[in-house]
Amino acid sequence: ETGVTQTPRHLVMGMTNKKSLKCEQHLGHNAMYWYKQSAKKPLELMFVYSLEERVENNSVPSRFSPECPNSSHLFLHLHTLQPEDSALYLCASSLGPRAQYFGPGTRLLVL
Amino acid sequence: GQSLEQPSEVTAVEGAIVQINCTYQTSGFYGLSWYQQHDGGAPTFLSYNALDGLEETGRFSSFLSRSDSYGYLLLQELQMKDSASYFCPTCSGNTGKLIFGQGTTLQVKP
Question: For residues A59 and A63, which has the higher predicted lDDT (pLDDT)?
């Protein structure tokens, strides 16, 4: 398998649930990113990991908790989310700042 | 502060040439990227300009003027499949942080 993969592709959860989003890259990249894309709003950067260290946290609420166990895997742990957190969550990876390669995204609905 | 300006919508006909402009204000500016996103799809990297000038990749070219904080994406020989949203995120700092704007929706008509 090549490129950036994300699972699950769709997720419906209640406000009291705990779930995790998974991202995997097979490109040999050393940086990974989480983005949030809501309707009618620009793509928002959430977290940046470079060489498995978090180097950017864009004022994201603590109900979103990222984890990067190695340079190929990135997780986003979700708990006690709000309906306004419903969005498309995109993972990306890169080797340097030139180009980021995005996964297909997880479409999340919080009820 | 940080800001990005792009036209919200552009319409052109198949076979034509279209230019999508982008002006920015970004602290710690490293470069300007262009991404394409089809409805329901993920953003796809098109080009990256770190230095002034024109970069050409097939039918697409991207230009940057750092002194004017301005860039554009030029799409030639438009095809129906080019109908999509186009974003010009700026790269800020050395952590690969991309700052996205609202994007430009391009509609290509037959």
Answer: A63
